[in-house]
Specification:
Elements lengths: L1 E4 L2 E11 L5 E11 L3 H13 L6 E8 L4 E4 L7 E12 L6 E12 L2 H12 L5 E9 L2 E5 L9 H5 L1
Parallel strand pairs: 3-9, 5-7
Antiparallel strand pairs: 1-5, 2-3, 2-4, 6-7, 6-8
Length: 159
């Protein structure tokens, strides 16, 4: 397992997909991209999708993701994405009361049980007490990370 912290955007695209029976059907799919702004997120999802979709497609919606960190699996069978809400438990030294702070994560796994196992694998190496409050499968199709070798990238021109 590896984790990646970034600014993530969920991008929904619409296009005509050829189904198994050969008929065309208008579909809507959601993907996550690593970007610094809405404009960059739109550019990146269009670049990524243009190599997979032949024909016209439109970016229907872009929103900032509620998670800042993603746990990527190295297992090639892990093809689903799960949204996990964890609460970190700390003790306030002044009041000696338990304080909980919620954090959302995106976890790659093939099953709900596998997602739970992957969370415990990553978080087990930390000294923070946590509770998994919720874990649910998402409709995300894939996640695209920023790659330094992208051409004409504004992040590269700054360096």
């Amino acid at each position: 397992m590896r984790s990646r912290t970034a600014i993530w955007f969920e991008c929904r695209i619409k296009y005509e997909k050829t189904m198994d029976d050969g008929l065309q059907k208008k579909v809507s799919e959601t993907y996550t991209v690593d970007a610094l702004s809405f404009t960059e997120a739109e550019r990146r999802i269009m670049e990524e999708m243009s190599s997979y979709i032949s024909g016209v497609f439109e970016v229907d919606d872009i929103k900032k993701a509620t998670y800042k960190e993603i746990f990527f699996s190295e297992n090639e069978n892990d093809d689903r994405w799960y949204k996990a809400k964890l609460e970190f438990i700390t003790i306030d030294e002044k009041t000696e009361k338990e304080k909980r702070s919620a954090v959302n994560y995106l976890v790659q796994a093939s099953t709900l049980h596998g997602a739970l196992k992957n969370i415990d694998e990553v978080m087990g190496g930390t000294m923070i007490d946590y509770v998994i409050v919720s874990l649910a499968e998402t409709k995300l199709m894939d996640v695209y990370e920023y790659r330094k070798n992208e051409q004409n990238d504004p992040q590269e021109e700054v360096a």
